């Protein structure tokens, strides 16, 4: 149950970037932007699960403390970055077509996902391992 709490922190990390980018672009959270948030939450939850599962594997292998945090984050850095980059590159054309006809749904959705991915990817590799250590109480 504690680990589910740690994974769900990712949603807040994504929300930071998603809300900030909406604020600085259109300022409107539309239905399309809400769909973007839902998609974004799925991506960042997957990244959190990847990270926490690696930390749990390392803990079972006997790692503790800073070694566990560092190794777990570095082991999952590549898969998390690949997920973020491939999703981001696919959404850039949709985000850039803001004023064109037919992009009223695609643009806000893509902008929210891009902003949230940026904040969640950066913060995921720093915040989640630290919270994992605090929640599990393994600060040895």
Automatic annotation (TrEMBL):
Q: Where exactly are the transmembrane stretches of this chain? A: 7-25, 31-52, 73-96, 108-135
Coiled-coil segments on the chain, per record = none
Q: Name one GO molecular function term.
A: xenobiotic transmembrane transporter activity
| Listed Gene3D superfamilies | Multidrug efflux transporter AcrB transmembrane domain
Q: Which GO terms describe its cellular component?
A: plasma membrane
Which keywords belong to this entry?
Answer: Membrane, Transmembrane, Transmembrane helix
Q: Does the keyword Transmembrane apply?
A: yes
Under which name does UniProt file this protein? Answer: AcrB/AcrD/AcrF family protein
> What is the taxonomic lineage of the source species?
Bacteria, Pseudomonadati, Bacteroidota, Cytophagia, Cytophagales
């Amino acid at each position: 149950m504690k680990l589910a709490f740690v994974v769900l922190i990712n949603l807040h990390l994504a929300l930071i970037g998603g809300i900030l980018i909406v604020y600085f672009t259109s300022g409107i959270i539309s239905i399309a932007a809400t769909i973007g948030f839902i998609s974004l939450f799925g991506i960042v939850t997957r990244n959190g699960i990847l990270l926490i599962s690696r930390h749990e594997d390392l803990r079972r292998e006997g790692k503790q403390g800073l070694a566990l945090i560092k190794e777990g984050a570095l082991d999952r850095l590549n898969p998390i970055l690949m997920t973020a980059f491939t999703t981001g590159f696919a959404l850039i054309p949709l985000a850039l077509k803001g004023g064109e006809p037919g992009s009223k749904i695609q643009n806000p959705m893509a902008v929210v996902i891009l902003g949230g991915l940026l904040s969640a990817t950066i913060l995921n590799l720093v915040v989640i391992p630290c919270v994992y250590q605090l929640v599990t109480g393994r600060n040895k």
